[in-house]
Design brief:
Largest sheet of chain B: 2 strands, antiparallel
Strand order of the largest sheet of chain A: 1-2
Structural class of chain A: mainly alpha
Mean pLDDT of chain A: 88
Mean pLDDT of chain B: 84
Helix content of chain A: over 70%
Number of strands of chain B: 2
Strand content of chain B: under 5%
Shape of chain B: globular
Helix content of chain B: over 70%
Largest sheet of chain A: 2 strands, antiparallel
Strand order of the largest sheet of chain B: 1-2
Oligomer: heterodimer
Radius of gyration of chain B: 30 Å
Low-confidence stretches of chain B: 496-500
């Protein structure tokens, strides 16, 4: 019950924020940002308490709700959690707070509707991470898409309609393939057992012929590879990230990309182990291409956010490589990279937003020498760039190192190529930091405000803690392969 | 918490204090904190080394916490102190302390003084982690940490474009080596299932699959692992082919050049190879490559040093060349000699850089030796100190450099992985060393004063006792540091070739080795006569093509620029709009064309519709009838 309360609580508090924005009730002026911040904090603590007090072994999926929804098709409303989804939901809540805080002053127009969309997206994301009925999963997949598109299209930058439509079409077309695969799976279940079922645990029991499984696996794979994103389906991402408002970029890079990785692990690998193992060399090649291509493209950009967007493609390539190595070490690396990239890219996009607020430009050529007037911002910029290029001591290093060590056991040659991405990341990371904070000071900018300092400080704190003590997640997310 | 574990904590605390209070700290406070922390660390490491030498065990360890685990292999945050790391921590904290003391006075007037000292402290933290790490992942943490600090300090005066570029170059070039090293770690883990240094050195000797060639591979895993680790070492230690960043790194403030780019960080590669000797011993071919890389680098750097005009660049190339000697020693299996030279080099090169810094500051940031001259009279103390440093550099008998360099040269001839040709390289290098040192001394300190007559020597250099004190201690260490014998032979298992080398060292080897520096000095005395005598002829740097080529580091920069940097930038620029995106957008373009065609056809005029109707009817009839 609690999990449902959290998911729909987010949606509900979003609606409340929308309705009550800038209205006075009982002498208190309601503001959407306060309503959303408090409700996210409250529901986040609810979630932590739920996990903490349920004495269950989350190494396996633990069912929380299962109610019949559309009984004629045997579709259930079923939610379950395991360590993987708990880790990602906690990440979602952390970044939700960051999203609200970075929008604090940036969003002035239609703020009520904005926070409604933001919270609706979180609700969809948490639904995606916990749904175990595939129809419900697909439902949440769409729920998270539509408000996200609205956020880009309404509060984005100059080219926002184009970016929003591109994002929508890419995701929609690819998820159609997944829908076909979902229906086919339900049908196969009917053929084998006589009953139609969309229930994930039922599907795990199915014995699918490898020829068919290959195609179904591809249906899921493409949907998640677009979301991840992997080359050649990545091109929605730079546009969407660049045009979205700051919180939109944080949300996209920090969480929405992780739904792709989550889908790959939960559905592609677990439902079709044999088919995906056959497919692994191709997926790993795509991953290596993503790593190198993303790093190269990031280097070529002159737009701060576009650079970070391409670097995300590069980083998610490590995740995909790790996932398709079928190796426990690499799998741990993938989890850590997902969390670490969520934090570090969120940090870089927040920084981009803070700079945009000051100079109204995302162009790196308009920046330079900010260290002089804003040394604190410079320090954080350096730390976040360092996280992006995998400096040991920050969480990203642990993730990339474990991913590559694990993958090396399986694909040594590919890992050698993937490691070239470490050089590529140093190149774009240095470029990003130096173009912004070093060189001749062109403009005087204000240093970080208390709120901004808090955002950067807490993200950096998390990166450092996870960088030196990754056992927090490793010990927790360990069991899925067991 | 044990004393060993607390060693990097002092500079770390100082770093945190300096970074959080920033400019609010006065110069006195900031200096006390940063230099005091270094003093504490130096004191602490002396105590530790004393403890190590008196106790029965040859190793002190400190376990902090488990960082993460790779499968069943644990990666701990743990420190490991043995004789090799003892030498390193003494050098890092001892020389580091003196350089911090110097820097506190040298950088006094800089507006970002606290930031500078904070970076310097952070560097010491990373360097200590590097040398104390008990596993390769923690070592890599220190390794990248020193790289980052080096980057920050080279670009310390970040408003200057050239400094920014030099910093970027240093970071990226060393990162290329680091990547090779990381791949080496992957390979080591795959074949030995451990990343603990002591375990690897042990397992490398005993694991047969590691050392023997598998069926279809030309080389064993040991070969590749050693080669990849060597990649990391050449990047950090500025050896061929990744040496190009070091001369540019001189853009940083002079204490940085002394601390990072002469005494400590650049010797990390030497430390790595010495540390992983168990792996290298299993790959004699790679040992041979190490020796050859060292030999060629020391010659190239020596030639380049001969053509430099900037006092710091001469010293930079000389550093490169001296590290070449260390590499040569390691390649020849003379581990102790290599590490010994590392230590003595840290003393005298720090002395040389700091004295050069004092001279540069006295002349108001003049670094061109063709604009110096006659400084022996104006700065007699600095000149003497510099002379002491140079004497060690060219290994005049009795100085510390003599003991260490002789030890290296003596081991080369009969070594199975080096041999006579590398011995000749080393001798030629020694000759070059003494020639460029003489040229430097003559140009800077002898001859006619070529700076403006009325130039006032900055007084805070002239009078500061602390600053001179640091230099004097370094000078004493350079002169007498050679008397401390570093015996690490118990630590290193020596290479035992299956065929016992039958080459005996001829008796004239020693005489030649000792005589070479003197030959160089005598040659320079006459060849560079016009540099040392006072004449009225104007003295300018040569512009002949050959000299300029050497001055630019023998064209490596141009080579890499055309082969790597330009193509990468070109491809990046060419594909700025993302080819994949363009292809996918073709679909959108195609759809839009059809939309346009169809919307044109929906014009609303009756003629159009009638014509379309008629034509379609005709078409339909044609299709049906045919």
């Amino acid at each position: 019950m609690m999990l449902t309360f959290i998911i729909f609580g987010l949606l509900l508090s979003g609606s409340i924020a929308w309705v009550t924005d800038n209205k006075v009730f009982a002498g208190i002026k309601f503001q959407a940002k306060w309503v959303s911040l408090l409700s996210v904090l409250a529901l986040g603590s609810c979630f932590l308490l739920l996990v903490y007090f349920s004495n269950q072994n989350f190494q396996q999926l633990q069912l929380f709700e299962r109610v019949s929804w559309i009984s004629s098709l045997n579709i259930d409303y079923a939610l379950a959690l395991d360590t993987l989804s708990i880790t990602l939901i906690v990440l979602t809540f952390i970044l939700a707070v960051v999203c609200i805080l970075v929008s604090w002053e940036e969003i002035q127009e239609k703020s009520g509707f904005y926070y409604f969309n933001l919270l609706a997206t979180f609700s969809g994301v948490i639904g995606v991470f916990s749904a175990v009925d595939m129809f419900l999963f697909f439902f949440f997949w769409e729920v998270m898409l539509i408000p996200m598109t609205a956020i880009i299209a309404i509060w984005g930058h100059e080219n926002r309609y184009f970016a929003a439509i591109k994002f929508f079409i890419f995701t929609q077309v690819s998820s159609l393939l997944m829908l076909v695969a979902i229906i086919a799976m339900a049908y196969i279940h009917q053929q084998q057992t006589g009953v139609m079922s969309f229930y994930y645990q039922d599907w795990l029991m199915l014995d699918i012929k490898i020829g068919v499984a290959q195609y179904l696996m591809l249906g899921f794979f493409i949907a998640f590879a677009v979301k991840l994103p992997s080359v050649p389906f990545h091109s929605w991402l730079p546009d969407a990230h660049t045009q979205a408002p700051t919180a939109g970029s944080v949300l996209l890079a920090g969480i929405l990309l992780k739904t792709g990785a989550y889908g790959l692990i939960r559905f592609v690998i677990f439902l079709f182990p044999q088919a995906s193992e056959n497919f692994a060399p191709i997926a790993a090649t795509l991953a290596v291409i993503s790593i190198l291509y993303g790093a190269k493209m990031a280097f070529a950009q002159s737009d701060f956010k576009r650079l970070v967007a391409y670097s995300s493609i590069s980083h998610m390539g490590f995740v995909m490589l790790a996932i398709f190595s079928f190796n426990e070490i690499a799998y741990q690396g993938a989890i850590v990279t997902m969390v670490a990239h969520g934090l570090s890219s969120a940090a870089l996009f927040s920084l981009a937003g803070m700079i945009y607020q000051r100079i109204h430009s995302r162009n790196l050529n308009d920046m330079g020498g900010f260290w002089q007037s804003a040394p604190r911002m410079g320090g954080f910029g350096l730390a976040f760039a360092a996280a992006a290029f995998g400096l040991p001591g920050l969480a990203n290093f642990v993730g990339e190192f474990l991913s590559l060590v694990g993958a090396f056991q399986v694909f040594p040659i590919m890992v050698v190529f993937a490691s070239l991405g470490l050089i590529g990341s140093a190149i774009y990371g240095m470029l990003l930091f130096q173009k912004t904070f070093q060189g001749v000071p062109l403009k005087q900018v204000q240093d970080l405000s208390v709120r901004e300092f808090f955002i950067c400080g807490s993200l950096l704190g998390l990166l450092v803690v996870l960088g030196f003590y990754p056992n927090i997640i490793l010990g927790y997310a360990f069991g899925v392969f067991a | 918490m044990s004393l060993l574990a607390s060693l990097p904590l002092y500079p770390l605390l100082s770093f945190l204090i300096l970074i959080s209070f920033g400019k609010r700290l006065s110069w006195v406070m900031a200096s006390w904190v940063s230099v005091g922390a270094m003093g504490a660390a130096a004191f602490c490491s002396m105590f530790l080394v004393n403890q190590l030498s008196t106790s029965d065990t040859s190793v002190i360890t400190a376990h902090m916490w488990q960082w993460f685990s790779i499968g069943s292999a644990k990666v701990n945050v743990s420190f490991y102190l043995d004789a090799l790391s003892a030498v390193m921590i003494l050098v890092v904290t001892g020389v580091g302390f003196l350089i911090h003391l110097f820097a506190a006075i040298y950088m006094k007037s800089d507006e970002n003084f606290t930031r500078f000292m904070a970076y310097m402290n952070l560097f010491i933290v990373a360097m200590l982690v590097l040398v104390l790490a008990d596993n390769l992942v923690l070592l890599y943490l220190g390794w990248e940490g020193v790289g980052l600090c080096s980057f920050l300090l080279i670009g310390f005066w970040y408003q200057e474009k050239s400094n920014v570029l030099a910093a970027r170059k240093a970071f990226i070039v060393t990162r290329i080596g680091d990547t090779a090293m990381v791949i080496g770690l992957f390979l080591l883990f795959k074949s030995l299932a451990s990343l603990n240094i002591a375990e690897i050195n042990q397992l490398a000797q005993t694991t047969i699959s590691f050392t023997s060639n598998s069926m279809n591979a030309a080389h064993s895993d040991a070969y590749w692992a050693a080669l990849l680790l060597l990649g990391g070492a050449v990047g950090k230690s500025a050896q061929l082919p990744l040496q190009t960043w070091l001369p540019d790194a001189m853009a940083g403030p002079t204490p940085v050049s002394a601390l990072i780019h002469a005494a400590t960080m650049v010797t990390a590669g030497v430390y790595l190879i010495a540390r992983m000797n168990g792996v290298f011993l299993m790959a004699p071919e790679v040992m041979n490559y190490v020796a050859w890389l060292g030999g060629i680098t020391l010659l190239i750097a020596g030639v380049a040093a001969l053509a430099q005009n900037d006092i710091k660049r001469v010293l930079a190339y000389s550093t490169m060349s001296q590290i070449g000697y260390m590499m040569l020693a390691l390649g020849a299996g003379a581990w102790s000699a290599g590490v010994f030279h590392l230590m003595t080099h840290a003393f005298f090169k720090a002395l040389l850089f700091l004295t050069a810094g004092a001279v540069i500051l006295a002349l108001h940031h003049q670094q061109d030796i063709f604009k110096m001259g006659g400084l022996l009279k104006r700065l007699p103390v600095e000149a003497t100190l510099f002379l002491v440093g140079l004497a060690c550099l060219i290994a005049l008998p009795g100085t510390s450099g003599f003991f260490s360099k002789e030890a290296i040269i003596a081991s080369l001839w009969s070594s199975p992985t080096a041999g006579p040709s590398l011995w000749w390289c080393a001798i030629l290098g020694a000759l070059l060393t003494s020639i460029y040192s003489c040229r430097l001394f003559f140009l800077a300190f002898l001859g006619k004063a070529r700076f403006p007559e009325n130039l006032v020597i900055s007084d805070h250099i002239e009078t500061n006792k602390l600053l001179r004190g640091a230099l004097f201690i370094l000078a004493l260490l350079s002169l007498f540091g050679g008397l401390v014998t570093v015996d690490l032979s118990s630590l290193f298992s020596s290479y035992k070739p299956s065929v016992v080398s039958s080459i005996d060292s001829p008796s004239w080897l020693h005489i030649v080795a000792i005589a070479t520096p003197f030959i160089g000095i005598i040659f320079s005395w006459f060849y560079y006569r016009r540099y040392r005598i006072v004449t009225d002829e104007p003295l300018t740097a040569s512009h002949s093509a050959w000299i300029v080529f050497c001055r630019n580091g023998l064209g490596f920069d141009t080579l890499y620029s055309t082969l790597l940097i330009k193509p990468y930038c070109f491809v990046a620029k060419l594909n700025k709009n993302d080819l994949f995106d363009q292809i996918l957008m073709l679909i959108a373009w195609y759809v839009r064309i059809w939309r346009d065609i169809l919307s044109v056809s929906q014009s609303g005029s009756l003629r159009w519709f009638a014509a379309a109707f008629g034509l379609s009817l005709v078409g339909l009839i044609c299709v049906v009838t045919l």
